[in-house]
Amino acid sequence: MKRLLVAAAVLAVLAGISLLIGASHVSWAALFSPGPDDRALQVLVISRVPRLFAIMLAGTSLGVAGLLMQMIARNRFVEPTTAGTAESASLGLLAATLLAPGLPVLGKMLVATLFALAGTAMFLLVLRRIPMRSALIVPVVGLILGGIIDSATTFFAYRFDLLQSVNAWTTGDFSTVLRGRYELLWVTLGLTCGAYAAADRFTVAGMGETFTTNLGLNYPRIVALGLVIVSLVTAMIVVTVGMIPFLGLIVPNLVTRVLGDNARRSIPWVAVSGAGFVLLCDIVGRVVRHPYEIPGGTIAGVIGSVLFLYLLLRRDARVG
Amino acid sequence: MSGSAALARPERTLLVLGGVAMACAALFMLIDAGGQWDFVLPFRARKLATAVLVGYSIAVSTVLFQTVTGNRVLTPAIMGYDYLYVLIQTCMVFLLGSTTVAGLDPRFLFGVEVILMVAFSALLNGWLFGLARGSVHLLLLVGVILGVLFRSLSSFLQRVIEPNEFFFLQDRFFASFNDPEHELLLLSGALTLGATVLGFRLLRACDVLVLGREVAINLGVDHAKTVAWVLALVSVLVSVSTALVGPVTFLGLLVANLAYAVTRTYRHVLVLPAAALIAAIALVAGQLVLERVFGLDTNPRVIIEFLGGLVFLAMLMRKATR
């Protein structure tokens, strides 16, 4: 608990830094002695604070979503971008945009969620058909499945001139977050809390179907609940800020290496670390080419794939 | 199966494939030309040459790579080679500045890129094959993730170079099937020809490599040296195809496995041309069907990726990765 508080304090420091950097100059001094036009305060309230919230919410919920997926698939290398979930959500969003242009954001998000559910379920079905399930083949299958879905999305997006929008959904970018454009993400906080409430069930489900049934729990129902949470979270993030690759894989893996597989213990840590990871990526993206910005999702792609390779090439990655 | 006068099966298959490829090429050149011969013919000839060159280099590099790795699921594209080329190109622009690069002789630039590519892939292979000996799944996954890493690094560097021109740059990095530069086309043709001439010496050794490393060494093949040579050629061919049309992930996997299926032989003298012909047919016919039948202006890449991905999954399901 004490350590978790320290981690939260580090996160708060990062958050403070995040509020102060950007193209428009804002300093603490300017905030506490408001000038005639209150410009600093306005920048803070309309742009910086919403951005910070969006980053924290996305990082937290994606990390926890990855953890749930790893327990459901019983594989350490599964997360929304290595199981076709994110790509399916993009396809759903494209379908909603093309077929029902008048749909409000909430409706689009629900369509994307349904697609994400279908895509993830398909991935789990394909996994059952694959012989001698080596742990390493699972993410390969997921990535290829995602690639197939992605090529369908690209095909239609190219036809209807929507490639730019698709790019925005697939690259996490927090620079466009403003007050009134990200509030949907608060729902992910509720979902994360829901996952925490049901943490023990997911821990048990991670032990396998037989074990779960023996303890008198309804295994299919737990899996379904997990998939719904994961799909909703993914769809919301794709709709509002765009996908952040590998976060759901890196963060839970590093946390469970230290803490073990008890979800009740690891979820708070995954939440804090996930938020910290995205925050760090976003800050780096804002500082490297000041005053221009590089999307946090691009930075996360570089850092995430390096860490993924590190996890793979460590000796003990070969088992389990 | 075959009479004494008739050709053996693989040779017959090659003849048929050659005929089909010729027919596709003729159709592609002549259909709906509308009498504007002096404009249409050179324009289409360039497109056709691009398709044939790309098909050839992807097919040959994939078959050779699979021979060396002893596995029919791994391909250079799946192992991240294409994106490595894109990354090298991006780094050149990053280090030299886009204005310098635009002013340099494209032949010189392309040459440097190919040399770097060969060096890098040699390093990559030495490290990877040593590390993942015996675990094809690990190799596959590491390759796929390396591809993702190269791609993310490229897009990161592209944004650092010129945040405002990012999308313009991205377009410039990926020539399309419809718009090959004349210079680049000639250069690619020359390089491919050179690689082919060099490769002829290796064909027999490659036939032996199919039997596996230990057997090949027992039969007197200098394994390490041959593999190094073959991989260098693979790097050159990948550079050619990526420079012309950008990364194409699954075409190689498709055509290589189709070629094994229709020729049913281990002899590279027969498998390589078959794979190259199938690739050329797929690209040219694909473009024809898309343009003339469906009236789409998409290049066939997306369709190929879609089908290739499905085939790849099917292969994984059929335990082909053993």
Summarize this structure briefly.
The complex is a heterodimer of chains A (320) and B (322). Chain A is an all-alpha fold and 320 residues long.
Key features of this structure:
heterodimer, A: 320 residues, mainly alpha, B: 322 residues, 14 helices, disordered N terminus
Description of the molecule:
The complex is a heterodimer of chains A (about 325) and B (about 325). With about 325 residues, chain A is an all-alpha fold. Chain A contains 14 helices and no strands. In chain A, α4 crosses α11 and α12 crosses α14. The radius of gyration of chain A is 20 Å and the shape is globular. The model of chain A has no long low-confidence stretch (mean pLDDT about 90). With about 325 residues, chain B is an all-alpha fold. Chain B is about 75% helix and about 0% strand. Chain B has 14 helices and no strands. Chain B has helices at about 10-30, 35-70, 80-95, 100-105, 105-130, 135-160, 165-175, 180-200, 205-210, 215-220, 225-245, 250-265, 270-295, 300-315. In chain B, α2 runs antiparallel to α11 (about 225-245). The radius of gyration of chain B is 20 Å and the shape is globular. Chain B starts with 8 loop residues before the first helix and ends in a 5-residue tail after the last helix. At the A-B interface, α6 and α14 of A face α6 and α14 of B.
Terminal residue distance of chain A: 29 Å
Largest interface: A-B, 42 and 36 residues
Mean of all residue-level pLDDT scores of chain B: 82
Shape of chain B: globular
Along the chain, the helix and strand elements of chain A come as HHHHHHHHHHHHHH
Task: Please tally the helical runs of chain A, counting DSSP H or I stretches of 4 or more residues.
Answer: 14
Low-confidence stretches of chain A at least 5 residues in length (pLDDT < 50)?
A: none
Q: What is the assembly state of the chains in this entry?
A: heterodimer
SSE sequence of chain B, one letter per element: HHHHHHHHHHHHHH
